[in-house]
Amino acid sequence: MGVQERREREREARKGAVLDATRAILLEKGFRGTTTKGIAERCELSEATLFFYFSNKDEILVSLLFESIEFWAVGLDKIARSSAGAEKKLDQIWRFHEKVNDEHPEYYVLSAYLAQPNALEGVSEEVKERIVQHSGDNFQRLAGLLEETTGQVDGRHMADTMWATFLGLMVLREFRVNLGHGDVRNTRQDRITAFDWLKDGFLKTNK
What we know:
Distance between the termini: 63 Å
Low-confidence stretches: none
Order of helices and strands: HHHHHHHHH
Strand content: under 5%
Radius of gyration: 19 Å
CATH class of the largest domain: Mainly Alpha
Oligomer: single chain
Largest sheet: none
Mean pLDDT: 91
């Protein structure tokens, strides 16, 4: 391995460590508590060294966001290739939402962050356009799957409803936990119950 290749691998490994630290801090402290200083300390780097890899916090979050978009794209494409029937494929779509929550709960935190007024204010317009393009592609993937499984001509409203339902349940869970509610009512089974109602409505639209 040449010197240049070794340095590039070391750089990518360091960037990966920064992203992993950011995931953990996002889940522990939320956005306001996620700072470049805290990320650097978690990685045992100086903040100045951190800025050698990422210019600011937004750039770190954008890297995670693009990672999230790719994860969703791969998962939805896999479901699209499935030979399962309509109802089973709907189940697969919801289970994939759960899989994202199990493996990468920070992706839902990132999605909620984008609703903030000043989200990504440190990001260039070009990068924002890429986010819009690629996330829009995933939305079309989901809408297309819902059109296929329900027989509806336009699956966009259903895609909005399914995404809003799962993301809303995630936000509601954090809301109740943060307020100290004793009855959070947001287990996997609770979410399956919500999905069963949703699925029933989706399938009835084609009757």
